Known about the structure:
Layout: H1 2-66, H2 68-71, H3 77-112, H4 117-124, H5 127-152
Amino acid sequence: MITLAGAIIGLLGSFLPDLLSFFKAKQEHLFEMEMMRLQIEGQERLHTLKLEEINVQADIAEAGALYKHASRPTGIAWIEGLIGSVRPVITYCFFGLYASVKASQMTLALSALGGDWERALPAIWHEQDQVIFATIICFWFGQRAMMKLRAGK
């Protein structure tokens, strides 16, 4: 009986190095698979960062193209002043037009409602007016805030 047990132990003992090398190879394969997974994730992140960099470069190029006229001075002061005043002048003109239309509407509403300001004001100030007002304010002041935010990075 001891002989039989010794033979079985000897037989199993001969398989022990192969069994250990199998587990070692399995661990090495798992390690390699994890490394490949991490490399793939790293490549994906790198790709995302490169795309973001390309988008930022495109934004910079677009802004440069939009303000290209300012980088090439003409040497004539009144022309440069005119070029620089186009957007503000258009803004002032449309604001003046909008304010005069609203003043006319208020005059008509006050005369129709017998001078009742509490009913006339809500009658001329609609949701569309709020949208227009918010859009203009956010454009002019939001643009400056975004420029300051970008400069801080």
